Amino acid sequence: MLARLAVAALAVSLVLPAPASGQAPWRAADRVAAALFDAQAALLLDEPAGRIAPLSGVLERRLARSAPAALRTARSGLAAARRAVRVRAEGELAAARGTVVAALRRGAYAVTLDAVRRGDVATARSWLLIRDFREATRFGPESTPPRHSTPSPRARSSRKPRSCRSRRTCSTPTRRG
Predict the structure, then answer these.
(1) What is the phi-psi region of residue 144: left when phi exceeds 0, alpha when psi lies from -120 to 50, beta otherwise?
(2) What pLDDT was estimated at residue 170?
């Protein structure tokens, strides 16, 4: 009976929102990624890029404690992004953006595992949200046709074009005029 109660409490705690204690780590990580994207878009459009702020708050503190290597990588990626913006190097900024986003996700994974080991469900839940997430829309994966409905590339290449199916030989249509 006690085990069932514990499982039920854990399930309820996974569904309820985490208590607000400063800025949520997923929100901070999303702001960093959005700032890098905006800087990259500004460079591509030949506009002035905004400021790329350093990591701070709960994001920086928890990464420092649970994933110091990921924090170092994210910091060096942000520094590289600032240099790329300064010299207007689009390719370097794109690489730096990828480095930072990957480091934040790797760090979030480490923080989540650390929280799970300690039994801290609220922390694990809030750090699991640092991922590539998109809102579901009516144009999402469930609205696309199943894989088996599209012929494989090999099957497509071996099939004759529709205009050739009824003839013995296929030739390019000629213009009659």
Answers:
(1) beta
(2) 55
State the DSSP string of 134-148.
----TTSGGGSPPGG
Whether 160 has a pLDDT exceeding 60, the answer reads no
Angstrom CA distances, 97 to 34, 42, 70, 76, 176, stand at 10, 14, 14, 11, 56
DSSP sequence for the chain: -HHHHHHHHHHHHHHSPPPP-SS-HHHHHHHHHHHHHHHHHHHHTT------PPP-HHHHHHHHHH-HHHHHHHHHHHHHHHHHHHHT-HHHHHHHHHHHHHHHHHHHHHHHHHHHHHT-HHHHHHHHT-S------TTSGGGSPPGGGSPPHHHHHHSPPGGGTTSSS--PPPP--
Instruction: Note the Cα 98 to chain centre separation in Å.
Output: 10
Q: Tokens 């986003």 label which residue?
A: 101
Q: Mean of the pLDDT values across residues 83-92?
A: 93
Give whole-number Cα distances, 125 to 5, 16, 71, 112, 157, in Å. Answer: 20, 10, 20, 8, 47
Q: Note the pTM of the prediction, 2 decimals.
A: 0.63
DSSP 46-62: T------PPP-HHHHHH
What distance in Å separates the CA atoms of residue 117 and residue 120, rounded to the nearest whole number? 8
